[in-house]
Amino acid sequence: MKDRGIVTMADSCSIFSTKDLCSWTGGRLEGASHVSVFSVVIDSRSCSEGCLFVALSGERADGHNFIEDVFKSGAVGAVVICEWADSHKELIDNILITYNEVFFLIVGDTLKALQQSAAGYLDGVKHPVKIGITGSNGKTTTKEFIASVLAEKYSVVKTKGNLNSEIGLALSVFDIREQHDYAIMEMGINRVGEMDILADILKPEIVVITNIGSAHIGIFKNIETTAFEKRRSVKYFNKNSFLFLNENESFKDFLAEGLSSEVIYFGEDSIRKLYSDFAYVDLGLKGWMLHFGGLDVEVAIPGKHNLVNAISACVLGNKIGLSNLQIKQGLESASFVSGRTEIIEAELTLINDCYNANYESFEKIVTFADSLEWAGRKIYIFGDMKELGSLSIGIHEKAGEFAVESAADLIFFLGADMKLSYETALNKNEALKKKKSIFYFSNYKELEVKVIRLLKEGDLVLLKASNSMRLDRLVEPVMAKFGSIAC
User: Fold this and answer.
1) Strand partners, 242
2) Which spans in 252-381 are helix H?
3) Are the CB atoms for 361 and 378 separated by under 8 Å?
4) Domain 126-333 maps to which CATH number in 3.10.450.50, 3.40.1190.10, 3.40.50.12780, 1.10.1200.10?
């Protein structure tokens, strides 16, 4: 029998016990009945001493195939489905004999058990104010701004990266502790009913809805359904809760309808009601220079949409009671996720915006690139926008028309859906008698070869596509040729 030894964790305390786990999930326990859990993981490669491994069955891998590995790595428990447990009794017995003080929790649905555990755990963490960030675009950037601003005064925990789904949020809440003042979590959905699951886990007291757009509209069918689902984020609101809405959101009245809690708007008009001296200067690729409360504030992420995201954090910080100086320092120290309006400067300049794509974000980034004064050429490279369903044809055609009317000198289209954009752009280009060079590729490698051959020093290169297209693969070969200096 192997001795588990002393478990040493970053925060030196367990987050729950097997007793809690059984209470939250109703699962059947086999093995040690009094074990403390220090962390929760779903990736066997992330296992460490004292962790609980939840075996999820996904499209690419089944966590049940890695059960032996996680116990070798120090897991104290594993959540598995009944069918697997029934067919692997010998393996379970061997693990329980080999390792000291470990357990299996056997359930009907491991994802549901993860969510139930997250909700149960968070219900017991009373102190932090829970802030949910949702919307079709801008969730992660807005979260980073808000977290950075609040961290100037308070103890803050936030979603790592963009772990915002029914799996990601459930994992994120286990980072929340009593010593935190604010927990700032993204709530991202891609199917009907998912927001109810997220709200049941987080029960946010403050919600920020960035916008309602076409993200995942192929699943939601129409934008009205998207708005309805986003509104479910406030299902646990009471009179002491706050909802923050974009003043220019067309669904703002619907989102605020019937709420007894306070609704606060953000945007240029709204912030001027707080700061009569509010003004801003567009610094192009360097971002924005804001002025409010007698202070100059540098916001180092470009694009008008990101200006609005920064304003939302400013308005929220003001409402919570932060000083103007604290808000300034928070905005200036915010950091951002790679692939979201990421600027790379070298012998040419590259804008990498390939984290996600829908028509609204497509139009915003193209408009931003168009607005830049540029001595060299502008080269726009687009990949498919995913999860648009039956609306995909119309949206990709619209994108092609918008692209050809842009300031681009060369336009590249990649992917089966972008073929529609390419054909629309070709026809529009001919009708407008423009002389844009327009290219289409179904194969990434062929695109890469052509792009590398045509690029030259001084170009401005824009990459925009859904993350699954992996268009950001272009960054490495482009910078290998032209050298890189991260901006």
Assistant:
1) 206, 262
2) 252-256, 268-274, 304-320, 324-333, 359-371
3) no
4) 3.40.1190.10
- Distance (Å, rounded) from C-alpha 22 to C-alpha 16? 11
Element containing residue 191 per DSSP (H, E): none
- How does DSSP classify residue 260? S
* 197-214 tens-digit pLDDT: 999 999 999 999 999 875
pLDDT digits 0-9 by tens, 154-207 = 999 999 876 778 999 999 999 999 999 999 999 988 888 999 999 999 999 999
Residue 16 near residue 40 (C-beta atoms within 8 A): no
User: Higher model confidence: residue 19 or residue 485?
Assistant: 19
Rounded alpha-carbon distances, angstroms, from residue 66 to 44, 69, 294, 382:
6, 5, 58, 38
How would you list the strands of the sheet with 279-282, edge to edge?
279-282, 288-292, 295-299
Tokens linked to 218 = 């192929």
Query: Which tops the pLDDT comparison, 307 or 358?
Result: 307
CB 256 within 8 A of CB 243: yes
